[in-house]
């Protein structure tokens, strides 16, 4: 875990988070930083979403309503969580 404040960031912060979520098979909702260099955060979020490992909220879906909609299956669907646990198994 980084000792930096929660408001600081570097390119490695996003990659580290993705690696940890993937390795630990944690359900997640990712909101990529819109100003990331080369749009890599959005690309990574969509890759994980296509694999069924996350829900990605970008641009027009990154709203309070979009977040509520995205979080619901993460919190209420045992099947969705089970799917994540079984990825690449």
UniProtKB/TrEMBL annotation:
Residues 14-79 form the Glycosyl transferase family 28 C-terminal domain. InterPro entries: Glyco_trans_28_C. One of its GO terms (molecular function) is hexosyltransferase activity. Pfam families: Glyco_tran_28_C (PF04101). It comes from the Bacteria. This is Glycosyl transferase family 28 C-terminal domain-containing protein.
